[in-house]
Design goal:
Elements lengths: L2 H31 L3 H6 L11 H9 L2 H32 L5 H10 L9 H10 L6 H5 L6 H13 L2 H9 L4 H12 L1 H17 L2 H6 L8 H4 L11 H21 L1 H15 L1
Helix pairs in contact: 1-14, 3-14, 4-8, 4-11, 9-10, 11-15
Amino acid sequence: MTARQGRNIAFTALVLIAAAIWIFPLYWALTTSLRSENRIVADAGVWMDELNFSAYIDVLSTSKLPMWYLNSVGTSVIITVIVLITGMMCAYALSQLRFPGRRLLYLVVVASFMVPVPALYVAQFVLMSDLGLINSWWGIILPQLIVPVVVIVYKQFFDAIPKEMREAVLLDGGGEFTLLFKLYLPLNWGITAALAIITFISAWNNFFWPFLVVTSESMMTIPVGITQVNDSFGVFYARMMALALLAAAPVIVGYLIFQKRVTEAVMISAGVKG
């Protein structure tokens, strides 16, 4: 065995160990969700030696999981669509149009990274309350529509498009909307897909703001609804794990399907923030 082969084997072993450590919590959650509550308390074994679906049946039949799914999907889709459209249009204006205050506006967008999002929650909650949007989809959606990284990423890609292409469209009588949606957008479908996926996942997983603005159980999103599996008799571990896995299933499946796009979006976002 050569030294190179030995290094490859050692590296492969380290990767497998890291993968096993990463996947163990998911395996533990699945094992716990497929056991009876009495078995969980009496025997916390590691191996999956029981297939009891009572926790899943109980969650699906007694909780408002379908309503929480609807709230999460609806708010996340609306947030994603609005963030992409407004971010794209703002980036186009900053990149291609010349108007007073353009550079100052871009500096404000970049500087917004320095403001922690939780620092705005008090002002946002007061504003949503004044607008009568507590316990509503728009109360969840509106404060999540400001995503500076989308504007910055789009602007970087728009800046890289040759000016000759813009001039050719203008000579043919095309306007700004024609340029944006028929030239710039088709050239950036890859980055648009990546940003859409990462924005959707971020909105889906958001817990703290929906937890603050929603008090009605029927308006809760999936992350907030998970907290409702506890009752006055204590914690039901199998139900909690079953609900957590059902809540995470769409994100896990989406990540497995669009893994390449998600990785691109994370790298782009990290590059911008770095």
